[in-house]
Structure formats: structure tokens, C-alpha cells
Design brief:
- This protein has six helices and ten strands, in the order βββαββαβαβββααβα.
- With 199 residues, it is an alpha/beta fold.
- The chain has a single domain, classed as Spore Coat Polysaccharide Biosynthesis Protein SpsA, Chain A (Alpha-Beta Complex).
- The strands form three sheets. A five-stranded mixed beta sheet has the order 5-4-1-6-9, with helices on both faces.
- 41% of the residues are buried.
């Protein structure tokens, strides 16, 4: 994985969103509160996005969930819509051209990931990694212009993130960036206690 071009400390025009609204049924507890190196996952992901240059960064939760640590909060406007509702909330609140989105349960993603990925973004177009098993829509960068597509899919009951990425790529709203399986550990998420033990 190589950076396409250099990156400064701050990426002007990009905000960040940590998606932390999941039910966490398989984990048995709120994944946002799991710790990595003594740091809650949600706080680590906020830090990752800030170190990548995103500002402001907000945490997106379901209505009824606990707010976290004084950080800026956004709330899903759609019930039982999965991460697509979190992406919609982040895009709706966006002030700049892009939103860097990171799921709370992906501790292998670091700031360098987003600094590299942002090198593939252009005006009106974000970037999503593609690999042998599909795409990684929850460690991705979306343009503000993707909001119309996301909202339409929510209204129509089409909640698949993989299908969203396909639609955005077809409309040239995201660029698909091919990576090899050598990077697979980076995008592994924590869904169960076993996943967490494996690291």
C-alpha cells in the first residue's frame, strides 16, 4: 500500500465520523467501550481520524445510546438501518467536501490508511478499498455528493453497504482502490470475543 501523494497535518475540507451505533449482539457488550492499549475503541478511532487530518470528528450513535466522553455526537435518523444510517448522518452533517468514515470495531486501521486513501480523492469523488472479498466501506472516504444516493437507498430499504459502494463507483462518486490480501489484517473487525482475543 503506497501513498499516492504527500499529506499535510490537516486535510482541509474533510471531516471524520466514527460509526459506533451497532447493537453488538455477538460481542455481548458495546464494542465502542472495548479497550486497545488501555484506550476505549471509540476514543482510539477518533484519534486516528484526527491524526489523518480530518476535522471536525464526530461519533455516530443510535438514538437511545449513551453519548461518549464529551465528543461531538451525531445520531442515526433511521432505525434498524445498520451502518448506512451512520454514513447518512455523517454526510448530512458534513461541512467540507469529504467525510472519512471509520467503524468503531476496526482497530487495525490507522491514520496512515486514511492519509494514503485520501490521495485517491478528487472533487466530488471519494475512495474505497477493494479486495478479493469485496470492498471496505467502513474505512473509507465519501464525498458530500454521495448523500443523495445514500438517502435514496435508505428510503427504498436498500441497506447493503457493498451495493452502495457499487452504485457510487458506477456514478463516479467513489474510486475503487485495489489492494492485495497482504493487507487483510488491517481491515479485520471485532464482532465476537474470539475476534478480540485474536487481535
Amino acid at each position: 500500500m503506497r501513498r499516492k501523494r504527500g499529506a499535510g497535518a490537516r486535510w482541509r475540507g474533510c471531516s471524520g465520523a466514527v460509526l459506533a451505533g451497532g447493537v453488538s449482539r455477538r460481542m455481548g457488550r458495546d464494542k465502542a467501550m472495548l479497550r486497545v492499549g488501555g484506550e476505549p475503541l471509540w476514543r482510539r478511532q477518533v484519534r486516528v481520524l484526527r491524526e489523518a487530518g480530518a476535522e471536525p470528528v464526530a461519533v455516530v450513535r443510535r438514538v437511545g445510546q449513551k453519548a461518549l466522553g464529551g465528543e461531538a455526537m451525531l445520531w442515526d435518523a433511521w432505525e434498524d438501518a445498520g451502518p448506512l444510517a451512520g454514513v447518512e448522518a455523517a454526510l448530512r452533517a458534513a461541512k467540507g467536501r469529504w467525510v472519512a468514515v471509520l467503524a468503531v470495531d476496526m482497530p487495525g486501521i490507522d491514520a496512515a490508511w486514511f492519509r494514503w486513501l485520501r490521495g485517491f480523492c478528487t472533487a466530488g469523488c471519494g475512495a474505497v478499498v477493494r479486495h478479493a472479498e469485496g470492498s471496505e466501506p467502513l474505512a473509507a472516504i465519501y464525498p458530500r455528493e454521495a448523500l443523495a444516493v445514500v438517502s435514496r437507498r435508505l428510503r427504498d430499504g436498500r441497506r447493503s453497504m457493498q451495493e452502495l459502494v457499487t452504485a457510487l463507483a458506477r456514478g463516479r462518486r467513489v474510486r475503487l482502490v485495489q489492494v492485495t490480501d497482504a493487507d487483510a489484517g488491517r481491515w479485520r473487525n471485532w464482532n465476537t470475543p474470539e475476534d478480540r482475543r485474536r487481535g
